[in-house]
Design goal:
heterodimer, A: 973 residues, alpha+beta, 7-stranded mixed β-barrel, 34 helices, B: 363 residues, 5-stranded mixed beta sheet, 5-stranded antiparallel beta sheet, 11 helices
Chain lengths: 973, 363
Amino acid sequence: MVMAMDLAHWQKRLENHFRELSAHRRRKFPDRRIFGLEHGLDISETQALTTAVRAHIADGPPAWDHALAWMVYASEIGYRYSGDEYWQTFEEETPGWTINGDRYWIRRCFLWFQREFRGVEPCGIWARHFSIICWPITHAILPTDLQRQLAHVLYELRHSFSAELFESPLILGDLIAARSWNATSRFQNLAQEPQLLGQIAAALLLQGEFGTDSLIHPATLRRIGEDLDRERRAREWLRGARRFARERAQIRGLGLLGRGTKPSSVGHPDDARAEVAELGIEPRLVLRPTDSINVSWEVSLEIPNLSHLLIRFPQTREILTGSRCVVAGAAGRPLARGRCLHGAQRVTLAQWPLADEVLLRFEQTDSQLEYLLRAECLLRPGPTWLFRIASDGLAYECRSLRVRPGARYIMVSTAGPVRSNGHTSPIDLSCQGVHGAILDLPQALTKDWEEALRHLGLGQAKTIEVWPAGLSAVVWDGEGHGEWLASERPCLGIRTDHPLASLLISMGSNAILPLELTPVEPGEPIFVALPNLPVGLHTVHVSAQSSLAGQTELLGDLDVVMRIREARPWSPGVSPHGPLMVQMEPSAPTLEQFWEGRVEITLRGPADRNVKCRVSLFERDGDVSTVTKQLPPMRLPVTTDAWRAHFERHFRKTREAESFYDTARICELEFAADELGAFTVRCERDFTPLRWAVRRRGQGYFVRLLDDSGADSQPEVKRVAFETPCVEEKIGLASEYDVPESGGMYVVRMSAFAAAVIVPPVIRGFADLGCVSRVDGGTRSTESIIRALEISRLWGQARLPGDFISATRRRGVLLALVRHVAQLLGGDNWAKAEIAACNKDAGMAVLKDAISKRREEIAVGAVLARDYGDLAITTCEERVKRIASLATSFHLLQPASPVSEFNAEWLSELALRLASDPVGVDVWARERFRAGLTRLMDAPTLARASRFLVLATDHHLESRSVTGELYAGWGWT
Amino acid sequence: MRRLSVAEVHEQKIVELGLDPSALDLTSIEAIAGAIRRTASFLCPCAAPTLVRGVVRPLRGLVDDLEAVKAIVEDTLDAMIAHGDILEHRDVEESSGHKNSATLYAAPAAFVTRKSGTVILLGIASDQLSALPDDLDARIEYVNHLRRLSPTPGENLCGDLVQLGLIELSYADWLRMPPVETAEQHLLHLDHLLDAVQPSRDVPGLLLLDPERPVRYYRGRWVEPRSQCGRFVARRNQAYGAQLWCYVQMLNGNPERLIDLPIAKSRWRGCDEAWRLQIAIDAKRGEPQRFRVRPGPENTRVMEFLSPVPMWARRRWDAVGEPVPNSGCLFAYRLAETELAEELRFAREVLWLDELTGSVKQP
């Protein structure tokens, strides 16, 4: 039992403690700061301090004399923080705070602590946006909900540890930040402070040993460690990482700060290219037979996991995680965002890539990434490629043009058919631009065969054969290139087909002595164990020597290239090796994105097997769910549209979900397909500095404004009615607003921040369901269109509460706005035609006639009216191509200057996007947005044709749009 | 860097597999199963020959008879697929265009709890040999391809495994099997399906399972079409991957009608359905497939099987017994005496097998 002390005594005690701690740390590590959580109090003392703080604030405002006690109190709440409302928790746990307290005052306490005691100062974008709560959360060191994630990342990185790394917290922090690309947004915030993250990680790993005793106060470190121990998986991860850390903290020169793991910038081009070569991101060509007699083959490209690239070059992260990947020669859609980071992918090629064509191209690439990809992601130089047919029937690309007797190969050439009298059999490749033939080599090569091979430009493989012995390598090409895990000790088998005086095996490192084996009998396998090799690229050099008349002669040599990589820690859920495949874009969706159908989710697996889904809503992390529902099973495969319809029907539209969504902060979806696998998706509310919360009060609603920005300026609040979506009505600043029965949108803006929320009307009868949104005319100009699109974006991105009426009302507003944009682009007559089409059975015919009256363009409408049924069941990409071809054929675009950045396809896509889903068009068009609109204003027939296709497709699909679509069939990705 | 003897390679790699080098070498079933799991964690999804090659090729120079080891690897892989460590499904990759290819997938790390409380571990962890922490890993009991874990007194083993992220499969779901029916009913059902299909044309690479050949030597029953008439379990070639299983009606050695196995929407593999169908065919002919029972150590009996059975039957015996080395049979399970009566009933009534009595010589 701790004796009750008043706050002045606590203050004194904390002051003494922090002064001593600060001085000690400065002596040991001049560049490291101290944290508020390092208060040195045990559980009962912390509880006593808490009681004293609460007692004080209940009676009056906080006093400056107690600043340290308050700073510790706020840090303790930060330690339990899990992304929910910090101040709400603070106020609930601190009765009297709302009357007597002041959050700016809390910040002043931390600022004083930072200056006076060399406390940590939060930094990064997150700290700028959340300028007050960043203090208590940063000073909480590692809030409980982030501990598990850090343990996981440290376990993943365990093979990269070294003494040098632990001495450089910034590099360790950078490494952790790079590795946590798929962690939660909260963890990403923590990773914005790599120096602190590295300090915390080193302390957790080494627990005071190896000179790290002063990184974090021992009692605080013990406390975090004990909290981590509560969850078994986290405990095991940290335990595993610590074991490696202790071993490696004593070893210098593992090369981990050099070529191994240090995140690099694209500095010197040659260095960067050399590093990329070490990563093993070179795609591999694979041929697969498509008939049972091996005459027809398809070509595919196997793309390795690119997550290594991201770790080594953190600046590529935004592109690798947020941009789709176009594979050279592939016929289908680009690979989804982030897909290349989740394991190897195999993509069928319809066209053989050009010699200098980079095989992987990201839609939003930059010159640095392109430069890096150019190092490893090109085809091997042609015009001939060799593939060895393996026992599984597939043919894998060889690195050289050397063959072995007794094996089967496919030769592929871009220089015409492969011909050799009687030695090759031609095959059909379903890939344009190449020819192929099979070579079936006999066990012993005759002179004829040797001549044929020479004629084909092929050589015979070396007589030294090397293979991974005992257990397979992760990757082995059969000749001399392979990949091993850092956790294993590679062992090689070596065999020659003729007697040798000696075999010399070396690794080009002074630390590893060469091994000379003598004599070597032909056909006799020799096994060699290599030392444990650090992560990176290594070469084993094997030299064969003969001894003739006492003279040693080099007969030949072979380089075995070994890439050593870290083992990826096992995590529950689906893996690229299992039968259940899940694709989700974005990979870590927010609750709002998920709820509003802005997430693409597809599940693939054995056809017709069931997958079950249980949905739960939580108000706080760790709480019992407020609602949990087992949805009916779905049959695999599940498409995005099928999932959205299923979720909407069985959960989103249910009364329970509508009731609990508004107060929910987390939505958890647990998918399970028996032995095929299971995985969990967790979506948390978007956490922005300014945001709205919607709550019910009786029949109606009220909205609460939450401001965590900590900015000094006052936010501006406006209300917009559904009937007049472009007219904002300014209202006074308050923390809560009672919403009128007509509902509407509330918008708050402050410096760079803005947030909007849509509140439904109170529905008392059938008449309340209807609403007509009016959008005023405006002159036909680029500015008017941009204004309409800005308003569309505000409505489109406004937070929606759980009820369905809000979504319906928003859709009505967006439809009015898109009609308005169509009028600005297509003209008043077109707008009239749209109205007329609504009221007539033959609406499509009316619209078709309105596309253009000009003689040379009149066929555009006829073609589209004929084709829209077929186009309705294709993809948006196909429709773009069709509109673009019409634009070109009928000269719908004004002649562009020779250096114009716009082509018909891009402008057609712009027109179709504007006509179908204007929200986010500006983000898609980026810097070409304004000029593109201006260009489109000059091509009204193209705009009208595009709008026609949108409406006709919707009509053909009976307006069955899924969540997130304004018009059926127009879900852009 | 140093030279290793063959024995040293065996020892080093057995240790890397987390097994006991004093008791096992790389040719033991336990090590082969471990190597298959490890290789599958890199190579899956892949075809069975790819996985077999990945395990067998590193053994060059380390074993006397590589072909014999390859046969053991194939048998062990079959047992592991039946058991649930590895899953066999038609290719689920939509872009591949090879939906008929039987493809192997690494099952996610999971477990089943037996009535005794002992846990059977299933599945494969990427890049790792085990999804378990070291302390639990050290307690795993390896019996041929099985991995078992018994709880210590007071330990909530299932709770711990769930907390570690392993999927708990229900015992009933794991042992799920088709509805019980007679051999005649089963055959009638398949015959109706075959009656309903359109006549087939040429079928490349057809091999028939000849019912006339001795039921006790499964591998010797496969024949090429000559002049056969009637209905047969068969296999046929496809563009890529393993042969497809089918049920075919022949007239003078030519296929007339054919259905591929598994039939649509079945959860079983083609071979499971084919083997069950052949058991039904043999039972109806009055030449049922056989098993025999011999005494085992310490109040146990060993059931020996001469022909393959569907995976759901092998899973059942994985659960109630344990696989033992087979000698003169295709596979064998040791069972407690107390379990025998129930398993004999299962073999006779559900699998339509007949017990062979007296000494038998392998043909």
